[in-house]
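Self-study notes.
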Amino acid sequence: MKNTEKTEKGELQLSPGEWKLMEPLWEHSPQTITQLTARLEPQTGWGKHTVITMLNRLTAKGAVRYTEGERARLYESCISRAQAAMRETESLLQRVYGGDLGLLVHAFVQQKGISEAERAQLLAILQQAEAEQPAPPEQEG
């Protein structure tokens, strides 16, 4: 098995094309180059050589690994979609908003607006986070 472990927090960033290739691996793994090409070609126009190049890049990043199958290499993801999404979100938050989550949310609300369902969802998330937060230690006085 070949696998370079570079999936430590913050080290892995996926390009838009790499996200497209990872999606079918997240849905079903392992897959061969032929299977991935057949899946991606209709939407991307990528041929076998493009898929191979992308897989080599993702393998070097530690996002994908392969095993030698009987007839072909079998590729699978080393990172979940949720982990990749969190890394992308953290990267955006740091790069664009200096780590300030409030600014990020404000920017989205100002530009896109917010539906009642989204508002309720955000409030529920905040209430859950508050409930899970440990109580501050009592100060002696």
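Second protein, same conventions, sequence then structure:
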Amino acid sequence: MVPLSKSMTGSLVKLGTAPPLPEDVRLEVTDRAAEQLLKIRDQSGKQGRAFRIGVQGGGCSGFTYKMDFDEVKQGDIIAARKDGLTVIVDPISAPLLNHATVDFALSLEESGFKIRNPNAHEVCSCGKSFG
């Protein structure tokens, strides 16, 4: 994951308050998303690993989301636990993801993981980039 510099964070995302303390970082994972994430994790042979979500520089709006299954590392923040799934965030991504919701949609119009992020001031039309 590419770390964000302070200048990128300060110029693209205005938080309005101090960044949250690690124990204050919270994400919501919907039931549909947790079910899909557990299924993908287990089918890919990554049982026991956590779902890592982070932010990296890029995309047409400034930041993109990065998701993977990973081991919990020193400094990681546990942002949610649901149905046997642990969600971890790195400290740099935490302020940009605090209070976001990870959902999963499967319909004729859309499919895949969707992130509703109250910290995003701009979202590109594809939904994969924000600023």
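Instructor comment on the second fold: The chain is about 20% helix and 35% strand.
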